[in-house]
Write a sequence for this structure.
């Protein structure tokens, strides 16, 4: 029994006439009559009464048609669901990220993706770069946003592109002498109590600060250690000292604080988006398309790094 047999039976029941049903189906009447007869033999019961006034379902036919209509509805729904999945409109995306990526650019990317793909289930996990790299390699994540490119076993099988460039900035209380200044120099920082982050992703940042301030810097040795950039800003607002962190902190202004550029300008590790090179899932493709829109300078890098995605069938 095939789906066409179900369609033929439903059409015949609706038109109550072999000729009208055949025309509606776009086939000749004799093949329709034969297919209905074959269906009745397979079912083992007469499904239609042929009378001078029309063709009408028997009791067995009514029971069969109830199930047939449901089956056809399920087939139609399955076709729709398959098309949506192929377009990345349904499914699951597992994203690992460092906390500071929630300052920039994840809010715009996730907001847009959620609006345009409301039926994709987002599973979001805050984790350090080393952990998200291992999770990507193990297939436990679909995409990750890390500080600097992934390193370690299996990283060579990942596609990685920068999605954000950072440099060092300072944040102080509006009551601090530096408030209102556009920039602050290294020599001035050496004379101030500092607030720095010491999270799992901060070794590269710490190395940059050591190079900037000097390894014998007493200011750095006595710095207040914060868990993340949000704590740096909060402590600076309290007047604890001068907070040092990535320029993405500018995306999180807080009343009572002032941001200064640090001179000389000191670059920090990039934010990097990574995913498995072998992953050609439609949901990941849809997410990367959203990243392209929100981070225009990323598009060319993505196109250069990834192999062509499978061509979608016309009409999907």
């Amino acid at each position: 029994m095939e789906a066409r047999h179900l369609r033929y039976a439903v059409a015949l029941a609706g038109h109550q006439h072999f000729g009208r049903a055949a025309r509606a189906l776009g086939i000749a009447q004799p093949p329709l009559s034969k297919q209905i007869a074959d269906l009745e033999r397979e079912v083992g019961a007469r499904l239609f009464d042929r009378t001078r006034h029309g063709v009408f379902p028997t009791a067995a036919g009514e029971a069969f048609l109830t199930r047939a209509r449901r089956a056809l509805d399920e087939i139609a729904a399955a076709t729709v669901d398959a098309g949506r999945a192929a377009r990345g409109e349904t499914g699951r995306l597992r994203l690992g990220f460092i906390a500071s990526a929630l300052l920039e650019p994840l809010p715009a990317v996730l907001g847009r993706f959620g609006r345009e793909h409301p039926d994709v289930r987002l599973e979001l996990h805050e984790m350090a770069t080393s952990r998200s790299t291992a999770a990507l390699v193990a297939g436990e994540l679909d995409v990750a946003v890390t500080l600097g490119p992934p390193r370690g076993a299996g990283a060579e099988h990942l596609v990685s592109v920068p999605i954000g460039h950072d440099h060092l900035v300072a944040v102080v209380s509006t009551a601090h002498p530096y408030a209102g200044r556009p920039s602050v120099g290294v020599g001035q920082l050496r004379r101030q109590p500092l607030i720095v982050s010491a999270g799992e992703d901060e070794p590269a940042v710490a190395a940059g600060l050591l190079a900037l301030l000097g390894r014998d810097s007493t200011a750095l040795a006595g710095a207040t250690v914060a868990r993340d950039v949000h704590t740096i800003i909060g402590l600076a607002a309290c007047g604890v000292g001068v907070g040092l962190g990535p320029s993405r902190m500018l995306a999180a202004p807080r009343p009572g604080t002032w941001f200064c550029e640090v001179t000389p300008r000191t670059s920090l590790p990039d934010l990097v988006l990574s995913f498995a090179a072998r992953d050609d899932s439609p949901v990941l493709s849809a997410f990367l398309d959203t990243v392209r829109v929100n981070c225009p300078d990323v598009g060319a890098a993505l196109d250069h790094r990834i192999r062509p995605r499978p061509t979608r069938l016309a009409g999907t």
About this structure: The chain has three domains: 3-86, 92-163+270-305, 166-269.
